[in-house]
Amino acid sequence: MRFQDFIDGQKARKATPDLQLSKSLIGMSDNHIEVIKKLEIDEITASTIMTTYYEALREIVEAIAAKRGYKIYSHDALTYFLKELGKDAIADKFDRFRKIRNGINYYGKMIGQESAKSNTKEIENIIKELKQKFLSDINKQEKS
């Protein structure tokens, strides 16, 4: 499967690059991380923290898409969008986190404290890498 397949299937579409949306999504992601860092990861909070970290990561990927002129309606499509950017390893991790989040949200699966700690650290590193690679110039472009 390719990202183009999601465009063809109307789960993503080409749009006008939207730097304001991109900037807003970055801010939402930053806020999610800031709030969730105030909680200690334990057996009770682990699943909530994990799903919120996934959302923060998803918002960053959507910010990149908005900046590049795409509107994406499917979490699966976001995986293939990352692959299209040449970020196959990150795409695979994103998909793994998506499945964990879906397990929590739709099937009531709990995630353990240690798993949540390692996954959230990994997500923080991915967010940092994606922001540096694809979003570091967002404020400069907006002023042009």
Description:
This protein has 144 residues and is mainly α. It has a single domain, classed as Up-down Bundle (Four Helix Bundle (Hemerythrin (Met), subunit A)). The chain has seven helices and two strands; from the N terminus they run αβααβαααα. It has a two-stranded antiparallel ribbon with strand order 1-2. The chain is globular. The termini are far apart. The mean pLDDT is 95.
Task: Give the tags.
single chain; two-stranded antiparallel sheet; mainly alpha; 2 strands; Four Helix Bundle (Hemerythrin (Met), subunit A); 144 residues
List the helices and strands and how they pair.
Layout: H1 3-8, E1 12-14, H2 19-36, H3 46-67, E2 70-72, H4 75-84, H5 88-107, H6 113-135, H7 138-143
Antiparallel strand pairs: 1-2
Helix pairs in contact: 2-3, 3-4, 3-5, 3-6, 4-5
- Estimated share of beta-strand residues: under 5%
Query: Structural class of the helices, strands and pairings?
Result: mainly alpha
Radius of gyration, rounded? 15 Å
Low confidence ranges: none
Distance between the termini: 36 Å
Shape: globular
